Automatic annotation (TrEMBL):
Listed InterPro entries: FAD-bd, FAD-dep_Monooxygenase_BioMet, FAD/NAD-bd_sf
Stretches assigned to the FAD-binding domain: 6-331
PANTHER family in alphabetical order: MONOOXYGENASE, PUTATIVE (AFU_ORTHOLOGUE AFUA_6G14510)-RELATED
Protein name: 2-polyprenyl-6-methoxyphenol hydroxylase-like FAD-dependent oxidoreductase
Gene Ontology molecular function: any one: monooxygenase activity
Domain of life (superkingdom): Bacteria
Organism: Glycomyces artemisiae
Gene3D superfamilies, per the entry: FAD/NAD(P)-binding domain
UniProt keywords, alphabetically: Monooxygenase, Oxidoreductase
Amino acid sequence: MTPGNAIVVGAGIGGLAAAIALRRTGWDVTVLERRAEAGEIGAGMSQGPNALRALDALGVGDRAREVGTPFYGTANLREPSGRDLNRAESGQSLPLLGFHRADLHRLLLDAVPAAAIRTGAAVTGYQTAPSGAAVSLGDEVLEADLVVAADGVHSTARRTLWPDAPDPAFWHYTVWRGVADLDLDPAAGGMTLAKDRYFLIMPLPEARVYWALGARAETAGERSADEAAEVRRRTAGWHDPIPALLDATPPDRVLHHDIADLDHAPLPTYVHGSVALLGDAAHPMSPDLGQGAGQALEDAVVLAAALAGAPDVSTALARYDAERRPRTQWIAHAAHRKGTGYISGSAARQRMLVWSTRMLSARTLASLTAKGLARVWDWEPPRLT
Ligand SMILES: Cc1cc2nc3c(=O)[nH]c(=O)nc-3n(C[C@H](O)[C@H](O)[C@H](O)COP(=O)(O)OP(=O)(O)OC[C@H]3O[C@@H](n4cnc5c(N)ncnc54)[C@H](O)[C@@H]3O)c2cc1C
């Protein structure tokens, strides 16, 4: 089809990736972002080989490899005492790169002309229009041939156009995150596992280290006046460098979010007329496979390729939905199951994990991890011509 004009709602990783992919296939794109500035928060994230291929398809893969660092993840597993459960053989990390979120976001932002992004633009409603779809920003209405709603986990688009869909649900899982100013070798990264919580360490370039504490929580929204102190309390006595990381993190920059997903009620479709949901708006997922943003990147590439190869928007969006929904919902379910295990609180499960991990050689564990994730990591992007 002949490319037309598109509105992308949200300048997060998903929205920016969609803007890049659509522009590469000839679309005229306007990104609407409600925040005053299109920036990202101070935390980290990992990306797998599938996401890196999506970044390649967007033309920013080389830049991403420059700003990412090898991430060890489950290749280096420890107990809170510091005893190794598994240590990567010959320093071999998993095929993952760790990023400061702001770095990954920035390289996508740099690939979209500033004139195509309108900040301070909060979309309040969605309508059908003769051209395809329209969005309202208060009294102002903007029409387009296509609207891509990449407005995140609490998507206004999903609530408006899918009024019967339940909201993402809390499932007793909460996460604190921070970035410490500390120089750590990438091989010091990994995960420390306890009965109902874990601590993740991801060294980043420029003497920074991303850390996260994931834990079981009985009630949603429970917050402490001093979140940094709360993290210290929950990791008291845990091995080095955890105390040093917490010391090197400005207390006012400790983030605390509850995890919510749609695993209890996956959406029946990601498409409503000429509006396509993308990223967390369509499939909010637990962070445990490191795939939320990766799947948003894949969505963007597949959406643009479907539009390029179809006779009209509605055929393209039907293809997008058919291709993306099963994969993303399967990955979201797998991430939910993995997260459930991490925060289970079961002493028996913890003993089994410790025993089985120590029984396996590092090589066997790495190969089992790669086999278990092959269906996620092996994804190949369609060509964006
Ligand atoms: C603790 C944690 C760890 C994670 N770790 C990883 C990881 O290692 N790897 C990974 O791939 N993913 C990870 N994720 C998931 C990842 O953060 C998300 O999947 C990803 O950021 C989703 O991107 P998005 O663009 O869909 O949504 P968002 O990043 O939420 O962006 C949505 C954008 O839309 C804007 N917006 C919202 N409403 C409106 C509106 N009405 N009008 C205009 N603009 C609007 C927002 O301001 C925002 O800029 C993690 C998530 C968490 C919580």
